[in-house]
Amino acid sequence: xxxxxxxxxxxxSPEALATLGxxxxxxxxxxxxxxxxxxxxxxxxxxxxxxxxxxHAADGTPIMLTxxxxxxxxxxxxxxxxxxxxx
Length: 87
What we know:
By secondary structure, this protein is of the alpha+beta class. 23% of the residues lie in helices and 25% in strands. It is built from three helices and four strands. Strands 3-2-1-4 form a four-stranded mixed β-sheet, with helices on one face. Strand 2 (51-57) and strand 3 (62-66) form a beta hairpin. The chain is globular, with a radius of gyration of 13 Å.
C-alpha cells in the first residue's frame, strides 16, 4: 500500500474535512511521549523524550500508538485503511 497525496481546497470547512474519508482514510502523526496521555489516556506512563507515531482516523480520533512509522502504516493496511499525508 502506498500513501496517497491529497490536496484540499482552502474553502473546505473543518467540519467537512473531519468527515471526509470517515472509516476509510487514516493518517500517521509523529508525537512525543509527553503527548501520549492526552491522546491515549489508557497507555502506561512512558519515559519523556521518546519519538512515537500515532495512527489517527480521518476525524482525528487516535487509533493506535507505536514506535515506528512503518508499524503504524502496516496497522492501517491490515485494517483496510488508506493512509494519507497531512502537513
